[in-house]
Amino acid sequence: MDRLDEPEGRTESEKNVLDDEMEIGGSSEDESRQTNRNGLVEIGGFLCFAVVTYIIYTTIITSAEDVLSATHIPTSSTILCLNSPYFIMTLILPYYIDKVPLMTKAVVSALFFALALVLIALITTPGLRLIGILVASLGLGTAEIGFLSATSLHQDLTIHAFATGTGLGAILGPALYTALTTFMCVHPSTALLFLVFILPLFPLIAWFVTKYSHSRVHNTSQGSNVEYTRIGEESPLDHIHQSLTKEEKIQASKANMYLAVPLFFGLFADYLTMQGIVTTIAFEASPFDPRDHYQYYTMSFWIGELLGRSYGLVLSWGKPDWKVVTEKTWIFSTILMVNLFFLILCSLYRFLPSYVVVMLLTFITGSTEGALYLNSFALAGKDMSPRYKEFSRAFLTIAVQAGVLVAGLNGLWMEPALKEHCTHMIKNTDYCFTRSLHGWNVSTSCLN
Questions:
Q1: Is 0.90 surpassed by the pTM of this model?
Q2: pLDDT for 237-247, tens place per residue?
Q3: In 357, 368, 438, 439, which residue has its Cα 20 to 30 A from 321's Cα atom?
Q4: Where are the chain's structural domains?
């Protein structure tokens, strides 16, 4: 091609150099665009992984009172079933998770969740529906441990994207379930079966993330972006794929205890509040029946959790130089414990004037727990190798599940005790429990 305004005295050698520089510049620009595109795919992929996982998880939690309708089984039993197998998995999977491909994690999670939803929806005996929740726990464990730890092998923003996705899924699940069962009068079992249709997204997302991962940008089909390493030097990818030794894993476990302990207490307070305390607080002056109180409490909780888990991604995206995490995670745990004890007093002495106050308190619980979750996992393995981060983040799931399980065990006796205490304080004892005792827990507005 002819070049405009080209100096006449330029030699053929100089022209060739200029051609090479232009070609290199164009190649660098193309690689930069490809890198940006791949980065967006990674961020979007882990965001979607978390959204789908938490839509299913939080919908099952929100449906707890419906699943246990016509029984006096404590609400916390659903939490125990949903987290006991998961807790066992946290004791094993962190040590082997680096050997499991992303696609395998996605497919196994989808299969467990599909089987669980079918069992919960189709089993007619309320107590036996807990079998389906046990299966759901296996899907949750595979998904959260697998996808959360995998963020360590990708850019830093993926952990913020995953945390944001958990918050987004946590609000979408209860919102969809509440809309279907309360406003559209869809039967609860049918609403649960709807979720089966979103499960194929798991392997689809895994395929996109694997195909467009940053680690593959150097292996394009054209071969133009191949990264070379001098003989005797360590490749960056070797550093990523090098597994930790047993001693290194033990050392990493000890190093993350300062995050694990506050996380344990925070999750304990969070789940006991939502699954054993607010289930005993309803108001006769409210415009809806006792069953719907729980739906609104969980909605406000998950809205708060979305805000708590997503602020990191928003700030990091807009202001990359801002510090969005704090090592003082004990502050969040303290707030959650104070909120728990206050709501226990509220249930015992019934001094709150309106359900709106409870919704505000559950919103605070959700936003604080969300911030605790984000800060803990963002700090796990910070400034260390990708494999160290991967193990550290998987290790922290032990604290999460231990806190949830202890909360569930306490809820088994605390919820019945608070409910029994309430029956001696108010005349209309229907408002001592946010559950129907007459078949699948359908809103009374759907019975008219």
A1: no
A2: 444 456 777 78
A3: 368
A4: 38-214+246-431
